[in-house]
Design a protein that fits this description.
It contains nine helices and twelve strands. The chain has helices at 13-28, 41-59, 75-79, 103-116, 131-146, 169-178, 190-202, 220-225, 237-254, and strands spanning 2-7, 34-39, 63-66, 83-87, 98-101, 122-128, 153-160, 183-187, 211-216, 231-235, 262-264, 266-270. α1 (13-28) packs across α9 and α4 (103-116) packs across α5 (131-146).
């Protein structure tokens, strides 16, 4: 039996898709069952990394997938023979495997999508000091610069990732109103895309007439909450979950310390209104 702790925020769709991929792999391995403990981030915040380790040992965990900060002593798990894999949070780890993505390519896809529609003014809305937001912005910017629109590129990255739901609306409204009409806004994820749609709604900024908005992750709940519904880049997250489960099995069976990252690829745009 594989006993897996999944330490993440299950209010978002991303970990649910990862878990589906993990469970698909588990079903195919009929000879071995998997048990998953869904641990909220608040547990780590209250008890610290050593508290998580204490629970993992008591529960008999073989592996843990989690959102960890780069300054946390994640090697404690390896030292206690627990496989540890980091779900990208702010930075990638060099000492343990990461569940990450080709963020540069995702930004490039977004830029090409807007360029093909004839836009000439572009903006990026993302998080501050967060690798997947920064790299999506960079991929987006690179394609825009290559197309000759480097002077028509704007960005807003002031919100910290810890403040997932909270944001200051006034500066965001001011920034959106400062953008040229018909600007194409690429958001680092659907959370941010939903915020843009909400702010535009109460600020009388029309989507898509005044601004066009594109998110990432294809979180169907968030995309449907947006008015109009949010278009989004779909990622092959379930395949990533399947590969994570494979990696965990290989490490347990071979008793090695593989540092192979799981790279989740973008696989198209879900075009809504």
């Amino acid at each position: 039996m594989v006993r897996l702790i999944f330490l993440t925020d299950f209010t978002e769709a991303y970990p649910h898709h990862l878990l589906r991929g993990i469970l698909q792999y588990a079903r195919e391995q009929g000879h071995e069952s998997w048990v998953v403990c869904r641990m909220p981030p608040s547990y780590k915040e209250e008890y610290g990394i050593r508290g998580v380790l204490k629970w993992a040992k008591k529960w008999g965990a073989n592996a843990i997938i989690g959102r960890f900060n780069i300054d946390e002593d994640v090697l404690l798990f390896k030292q206690n023979n627990i496989v540890i894999i980091a779900q990208d949070f702010k930075k990638r780890f060099s000492v343990i495997p990461n569940i990450t993505s080709d963020y540069i390519s995702t930004g490039d896809i977004a830029a090409k999508y807007f360029l093909d529609k004839g836009f000439t003014s572009f903006a990026f809305y993302g998080y501050k000091d967060t690798i997947w937001s920064d790299e999506r912005c960079e991929g987006f910017r690179q394609r825009i610069v290559k197309a000759g629109y480097e002077h028509n590129f704007f960005e807003y990255k002031k919100q910290r990732l810890e403040n997932l739901w909270f944001y200051e609306s006034t500066p965001l409204v001011n920034w959106l109103k400062s953008l040229p009409l018909h600007t194409a806004v690429f958001c680092c994820d659907d959370n941010q895309g939903n915020k843009i749609a909400e702010v535009c709604k109460f600020s009388n900024i029309r989507i898509p007439n005044d601004l066009a908005v594109l998110g990432v992750d294809n979180d169907e709940t968030l995309c449907s909450l947006s008015d109009p519904p949010l278009s989004s880049i779909r990622l092959d997250i379930e395949k990533g979950g399947y590969e994570v489960a494979q990696l965990i099995t290989q490490i347990i069976q071979r008793n090695n310390n593989a540092l192979k990252d799981i790279i989740i690829q973008p696989c198209g745009i879900i075009n809504r209104m």
